[in-house]
Amino acid sequence: MSVEERIRAGWGGRAGAYLELTKPGITIFVAVTAVAGYLMAAIPAVHLPALLHLVVGITLSTAGSLALNQYVERQPDGKMLRTRGRPVPSGRIPARHARLFGWLLTVAGTGHLWFWLGWLPALVTAAAAFLYNAAYTPLKLRSPLATPVGAVPGALPALVGWTAHAAAIDARGVALFGILYLWQFIHVLALGWNLRQDYARAGFQLIPPGSHRLISGLMVGNAVVLLPVSILPNVLGMSGNVYLAGALVLGGGMLAVTVAFMVKPTTRGCGRVFMGSLLYHPLLLGVMVAGAL
Length: 293
Prior knowledge:
Blueprint: H1 3-21, H2 24-42, H3 48-72, H4 74-79, H5 95-117, H6 119-139, H7 146-166, H8 171-194, H9 196-202, H10 212-230, H11 232-235, H12 241-263, H13 267-292
Helix pairs in contact: 2-3, 2-7, 2-13, 3-5, 3-6, 3-7, 5-6, 6-7, 7-8, 8-10, 8-13, 10-12, 12-13
C-alpha cells in the first residue's frame, strides 16, 4: 500500500470511528421518535422547515450524547465482549477527543433547537442528555434502579418533538411519553437479561438480582400496563380507530411474548421479547401517525 493509500485509509477509518461513536442506528431511532411526536402535535398544520430543524437538532444532540456516553463508559466497555471494540476502549479514538466531539455535537444540537424551535424542546433535549449521562450511566454500576431511570431519557424524544410544535406539555404529550417509557423498560430488561453475563464483567446492574421470574414478571407487568396506556392517543382524540386497532394488536403481541418468556425462560424467548420491542416501537408510531391523518 502506498503512502497516499495509507493516508486515505487512515482518514476513512478515523471518520468511520467517529461515526461509530454516534451510534447511528440509535440516533436514527431517536430522530424518528421525535418526528412522530412532532407530527402528532402538528397534524394537519405540519411546517416542513420546523420539522427539518427538529431533525437536525435532535440528530446532533443525540449523536453527541451517545458519544459522551462512550467516553464516560470507556472503562466498563473495555471489559465487555460486546463493547470492547468500540472506538474509545479499542484506542481508535483518544478519550479526550471523544469527550470534546460529544460536547460539541450536544451543544450544537441543543442550541439549534433553541434558536429555531424555542427553549422548551431545547430544555427537554438537554434534560435527556443530562439524565442519560449523569444519572443513568453512573447508576448502572450501582443499582438496578438504573433501568427505570434510564427509561426517562429514552422516552423524552417524543416530548422534544411534541414541544417543537405545541410549545407546551399537556396530557397528550404525557401520554406519548408514558407509552415510550413503558416500552423502554421492557426493551432494556430483555437486553439486560440476555447479556447479563457480559454486563456482569463490567459490573453493570441493569437488572435486579434474582430468578428469571422476577425479570419476566417485570416485563409482563409493564406489558399489561402498556396495553391500556397505548390506547390513550385514541381516547384523547389524537388518533382514530385505525390506531386503536393497531395499538391493541401490537400491545397484545408484546404481552404474548413476555408471557411466553415467563413460561419458558430461554435466551431465544428473551430474544423474541427484545425483537418484539424493536418492532413495536416503529410500528406503533407509524400506525399512530397514520391514524391522525
